[in-house]
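User: My collaborator sent over this chain with a note saying "see what the structure looks like." That's all I know about it. Can you take a look?
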Amino acid sequence: MSKLVIVGTMAFDAIETPFGKTDKILGGAATFIGLAASHFNIDTAAVSIVGGDFPQDYLNLLSNKNINLTGVEIVKEGKTFFWSGKYHNDMNSRDTLVTELNTLADFNPVVPENYKDAGVVMLGNLHPIVQSSVLDQMTTKPDLVILDTMNFWMDSALEELHNVIKRVDVITINDEEARQLTGEYSLVVAARKIHSMGPKYVVIKKGEHGALLFHDDNVFYAPALPLEEVFDPTGAGDTFAGGFAGYLAKTNDTSFENMKNAIIYGSTLASFCVEKFGTERMQDLSNEEVHKRLLQFKQLTQFEIELE
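Assistant: Without extra context I'll predict from the sequence alone. Here is the result:
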C-alpha cells in the first residue's frame, strides 16, 4: 500500500443550481479528492493553504477521515480561496460569478517530510508551476503521478502546463479540455497526442456520459451511473480523481487492467457527490453504500453474448 499526497485547494464555494442555492460551504479540489480517497484507508496527506476564516470544524472533518493536515498552511490574517458559480438548466455548463484567490495567490506548497517518499501523488487543479514545485520536493520518484488541469491554464500558462505534463504518468481532463489542449476533435486522436506529450495514461471525463481511459492502443469506457437526481455537479471531477488515486494507492497496481477498476471506483464515488450540494453527501458516505453502488455499476455494464 502506497502513501498518497494530495495537492489542491481547500476553499469556500457558493453554488446556485436549478434546485437551489447555498451560502459559503466547504469546497476545493483537495477537499473532494481527500474525502473520496478516505474510503480506502490509506496513509494520505493534503497539501493546501487556507485563511484564518477557515472553520476548525472543516479541518476536524478531514482529520477525522485520517487525512494528515500537516501540509496545510493556515494564514491567520488571510482569507480562504472563494469561488461562486451558477449552473445552467442542463447542469453541464456553468457561469463563474466570483473568484477570490486570497491566500491561494501566494501558495507555495510544502510537502511534509514523511510524505516526500509517497508512492502516489495527486496534483489537483492548480497553476502548473505550483504542481511542478511539488514534484521537485519528492525525495524518491513516485510510482504514479496523476495530474488534473483545466482550460484556464491552457489559456494562461500553456508552456508551464506542457512542462509539468511531461513529468506525469496520468492526466485527467474533460473532453472539451482534451480538444483544446490538442486541437483535435476526435478524442481518440486527442488522447494519442497527449500520450506523445508524456503521460502513459490519459483519462478523459465526459460528465454524465462517463469516462474514457487510454493507454497505447488500449481504450476502456466506463458509463456514468444513471441517477434519479443530480443536485450539484461541483467537485464531481475531483471526487472521481480521489477515488481513482485512492484505489491505485491502496492496490499498488498501476497496470491497465487495474486502472479500469480505479475508473469504476472513481465514477461510483462521483455519482454520490452530485446528489447533494458541495461535500455534504461525501461527508457521511458509508462503505456499505459504496459497495452497493459498485454492484449496481457491475450489473449496468456486464452482459453475456454468444459470439461465433
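A starting point for your reply to your collaborator: The first strand starts at residue 4 and ends at 7.
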